TrEMBL record:
Its EC number is 3.4.25.1. It comes from Streptomyces termitum. This is Proteasome subunit beta. Component of the proteasome core, a large protease complex with broad specificity involved in protein degradation. GO terms for cellular component: cytoplasm; proteasome core complex, beta-subunit complex. It catalyses: Cleavage of peptide bonds with very broad specificity. One of its GO terms (biological process) is modification-dependent protein catabolic process. Keywords: Autocatalytic cleavage, Cytoplasm, Hydrolase, Protease, Proteasome, Threonine protease, Zymogen.
Amino acid sequence: MEANFDRTGRLPAAFLTPGSSSFIDFLGQHSPDLLPGNRRLPEGIVEAPHGTTIVAATFPGGVVLAGDRRATMGNMIAQRDIEKVFPADEYSAVGIAGTAGLAVEMVKLFQLELEHFEKVEGATLSLEGKANRLSTMIRGNLGMAMQGLAVVPLFAGWDEGREKGRIFSYDVTGGRSEEHGYAATGSGSIFARGSMKKLYRGDLTEEQATTLVVQALYDAADDDSATGGPDLARRIFPIVTVITEEGFRRLTEDESSALARSVTERRLEQPDGPRAALL
């Protein structure tokens, strides 16, 4: 939204009128056409690139959020190196599944929403409050979702009040659920969740948690054609992020490369991955 100064150099009244600390409410009042949910719906079925699998897992010191790099359009690979995990602010992150273009736009608006609230109120939202704001944004996209342009993210972050990492999942209507331990969304989520179900423990270290999510993404790619596994030839590896009391951190390319290569090399010996104990 442009400020559009008048001839006197003053800002329009919309920018000077006290109002809500929500940037989305501000747009809804003064430029509602800029909100994704208020745009004219396309006619018929629209083919657009879709992001696929996102996974998350908690450990005693925080939470890990990761995603594969493939975007698909029908039965075609639309992009091999798309980024699906973004910081929402210093202590939280969003992983996107669904219509890629709308999802990235929603994340950028969500980032601005949190930044605007902090500037107006002089304090950050609680993690619960952030999760609720994202739920409202997804609900505003319901019309698009009914046209097949759905956005279904995973939200994770460090809860300063409870001093632990937390994960929230959503449906297309904006319904929000807190997930305990681990979670997955996207086309390969059923396989990723099954993988984590057998391997997850409550006492994982940060290193073990990052390995767990890469193992889960590998299993998802093994059974879901829309999920991309580590591409050693092109040096395309999953995006893995860690959120602790020290804040958001994305693993460097060298770190993610080493992690993905170690998992891949182990799979040469055990193609189906690590085995859980029967009892």
